[in-house]
TrEMBL record:
Protein name: HTH tetR-type domain-containing protein
InterPro entries: Homeodomain-like_sf (IPR009057), HTH-type_TetR-like_transc_reg (IPR050109), HTH_TetR (IPR001647)
Pfam families attached to this UniProt entry: TetR_N
Keyword vocabulary terms for this entry: DNA-binding
Sequence ranges assigned to domain HTH tetR-type in this UniProt record: 14-74
DNA-binding stretch(es), residue numbering of this chain: 37-56
Keyword Isomerase (UniProt): no
């Protein structure tokens, strides 16, 4: 995971960790990065501040753990969607954009908060996840320069939207964004042949 994090060894400790991470997500979503403190997370989780410090060295390590968990969910949801998609460009691109949109919609506020306050190590984890997601898409869609460009464009648009939609709203829900992005990507892929 990350330096400054002590992984759980027992089932009860893993359950406690999940409780802390869920509380951390809640605090980020409802209070934002500025009010994200170990104390606020401990209060939300119903634990002592010391219980959280036994697991994490501080706020930065806890934020990294939340980001790592969300990125893992994103990688998993995209991988599953691509594995389950029907063959053909329309199905693969649609599954890809919907999986991204669904994950970002479920954690809309949290992704923007994590993008606002990320440090270099968190940025590196994010880039690793984006690269893995792009590889999965390229494998499913038939690797080519146009497919890789499509993946980077969709991923870039998704991350940009998550980072800026609070300040620069586009008046779309994530489902509509996914549908319109799919059509744009398919038009590009058709023109790149």
């Amino acid at each position: 995971m990350h330096e400054g994090f002590r992984p759980p060894q027992q089932a009860r400790s893993r359950a406690s960790l999940e409780k802390v991470l869920a509380a951390a997500e809640h605090v980020l979503a409802h209070r934002g990065h500025e009010e994200f403190t170990i104390g606020a997370v401990a209060e939300q989780a119903g634990l002592s501040v010391g219980a959280i410090y036994r697991r994490f060295d501080g706020k930065d390590q806890l934020l990294f753990a939340v980001k790592d968990q969300l990125l893992s969910r994103l990688e998993t949801s995209v991988g599953e969607a691509l594995r389950d998609s029907a063959p053909g460009a329309r199905a693969v691109v649609g599954a890809f954009t919907r999986a991204l949109a669904d994950t970002f919609a479920d954690h809309d506020r949290i992704f923007s908060e994590l993008l606002d306050g990320q440090r270099a190590d968190g940025r590196e984890r994010g880039l690793q996840a984006l690269a893995a997601i792009q590889r999965a898409f390229a494998e499913a869609a038939g690797d080519s320069r146009a497919v890789r460009m499509t993946a980077r464009t969709i991923l870039g648009a998704c991350v940009h939207r998550a980072a800026t939609c609070r300040y620069w709203p586009d008046d779309l829900d994530w489902t509509t964004w996914a549908a319109e992005t799919t059509e744009m990507a398919l038009a590009y892929l058709a023109s790149a042949k």
